[in-house]
Amino acid sequence: MSGAFTIGMNVYSFGLFVEPLENEFNWNREQVSLGYAISFVTSLVAPLVGRFVDIKGSKIFLIGSLVLVGLGFILRPFMTSLTHWILLNALVFAGYPGTLMITSGVLIQVWFPKSRGRMVGITTAGNNFGGLIFPPLTFIILSRFGWQSAYFFYGVLVLTLALLAIFLVRNNPNKSADSKIEDSKNYFGLNINEALRSKQFYTLTLGITFACFTYNGIMPQMIPHLHTEGLSISMATLAMTYIALMGMLSKFIFGRLSEKISSLFLMSISVAIQGLALAIILIANGNIWVIWLGILIFGMGFGGLGALIVLTITECFGLKSFSTLYGLLSFLGIWATFIAPWMMGRIFDSTSSYRSGHWITLLIFSFGILMLVTTKFMNKNRNFLIDD
Description:
By secondary structure, the chain is mostly helical. Helices cover about 80% and strands about 0% of the residues.
């Protein structure tokens, strides 16, 4: 649920807030995008959160992170300047590592050691469930009450979830909620020093960083991009709902396949499918049917990415230092979390279109696939997902 709320509100619905914020504050697209460019804060705090999760367990960081996200939303109706917008986005993104896969990625794999791929797929499908629910909900609230009411309502929802987590979340199925988890028999793989000495860590970091341009550059601006390509706002919102729905199915499929096939290869396929879809939308030149074909294909590839990020790390390094490695990987990819949204906003302000940004992203996806395949060959036959 934490992923469903966070991703549904702040990724899938972000594009719906763009024009209301521009109209309210007379900001341009680049300025609005700066709020998302501040997502590099996630990468700054991720190594610290990851290290402490490996030591202390997930629960305390999940709750604290939900509080940060909730405050980042609930205070937005009171902002009066671009500085406020950037700071409140920073607050939300500071909560990302604890609400998403650094914490839940460990919890799920410890609780379900025999079916990690499937369960990670099902859990991350919650992110897409948020994309299924929140874009149409946001569209309705914005139409009837305005952006201030939408953000305040979402803040209340997230803070309520934090309260529920106090009573419902446990670190380990065999121990109390407050115990350390580092002694669990399910904690296998390389320690942090062994992982950092391997070349695979750095090629995997590049592969995931390039693949994540879809999160930082494509998805936040997908609704306005589809609108400029020819879809109405309501149809673009429907497209996001489809992408979320298809993502739920593809996460389960990719997760299940990862129990038999290398998640590194599967992630390469996921990125390639997204690239194909973006190219189809670009060459459609306003043809609505071709645009929808691209949307249908994009949903198939995009959905699996969230689960596969977690599973590729586990495949290469195991769970012994999973959270620390996830945090370091995020930190080393910090440049992309700023460049991707800034680039999209800057290109739109210069050309009134996202097309050039999407062509650049296709090239970046190609490098990502190359790095992922390279990691697989360097990793040889080792696969902690299957062999532990």
